[in-house]
Design goal:
Chains A, B: One of its GO terms (biological process) is endoplasmic reticulum to Golgi vesicle-mediated transport. The structure is a homodimer. Chain A has one domain (4-13, 42-169): Trafficking protein particle complex subunit 3 (Muramoyl-pentapeptide Carboxypeptidase, domain 2). Chain A contains 4 helices and 4 strands. Chain A has helices at residues 2-20, 42-65, 76-92, 135-147, and strands at residues 98-101, 106-111, 153-157, 164-169. Chain A starts with a helix and ends with a strand.
Chain lengths: 173, 173
């Protein structure tokens, strides 16, 4: 179905457009970047932040639409499981591959073939290009969590394409 | 399904983002604008052109994915019918409501409830906001046509929300 790829095409265009307007196209963002790490130029940081913000608002809106009325979110972990299944399927037509937690508010969500990284060659070749394809999705997770009443910090890292880890940190209040 | 609305959410964010960066936020784009008409500021024209370009590339990519191998495009009109059915369903989960032509290369495609305009109130109230929600789709049509081997000029007009007319002009070569 074309509508499955529509999101991916649009996301690609969005990333390309924001990068085209980068006022200071310096050296590539460092590998394994978490979105705002050193190595990125000011313009690139701004683009990442814009993408993250767009993802956040889309995540918020999606969070309101997903069929969560049947679920009783007794614990934080239930919410994270919901994101790994329902949200991921809604957006990427697949479930997250694994979810781990230290039971102290830190969760690591791993996707072994993250769809937005799949068009790139696997391995290390284009690793430095990865962060710009992750920022939107970090925002998406943060936005969905926000709608579900949880404030969080979401970062992503890639050790080898197309495997991707999203780290969700929920500060204890 | 959330993935149906995903494209719409993302499109909304994209429009908002491009407008936020409009360096010269002057008076609104004139009603019934064709994307590049008078009334738009330079920044707005640039944003419309950027949106149209993004739509074009997404349309090109989609044109390659749609199941057109079963269709024999003997005539231009067949291609336009294909866009009104298959492309529209793939992107908007509905068919175009009508297709008219003067049989001289001009086609008018009418959608009586264009999904990207639906979130806005119906009637005349937000008419001047409409052009920015049409530019991407104009590009989408032009891009899909391009993949199918037809060069075209695509413009859109709105007389009353959420009814929208896309005019496709195919210059005779």
């Amino acid at each position: 179905m074309a509508d499955t790829v529509l999101f991916e095409f649009l996301h690609t265009e969005m990333v390309a457009e924001l990068w085209a307007h980068d006022p200071d196209p310096g050296p590539g963002v460092s590998a394994g970047s978490r979105g705002e790490e050193v190595g990125a130029t000011t313009g690139q940081k701004m683009s990442l932040s814009v993408l993250e913000g767009m993802g956040f608002r889309v995540g918020q809106a999606l969070g309101e639409r997903l069929p969560r009325e049947t679920l009783a979110f007794r614990e934080e972990l239930d919410v994270l499981k919901f994101l790994c299944k329902d949200l991921w399927v809604a957006v990427f037509q697949k479930q997250m591959d694994s979810l781990r937690t230290n039971h102290q508010g830190t969760y690591v969500l791993q996707d072994n073939s993250f769809p937005l990284l799949l068009p790139m060659a696997s391995g290390l070749q284009y690793l430095e290009e990865a962060p710009k394809f992750l920022a939107f999705t970090c925002g998406l997770l943060r936005g969905a969590l926000c709608t579900l009443g949880i404030e969080s910090v979401v970062t992503a890292s890639v050790a080898a394409l197309p495997v991707c880890k999203f780290q969700v940190v929920i500060p204890k209040s």
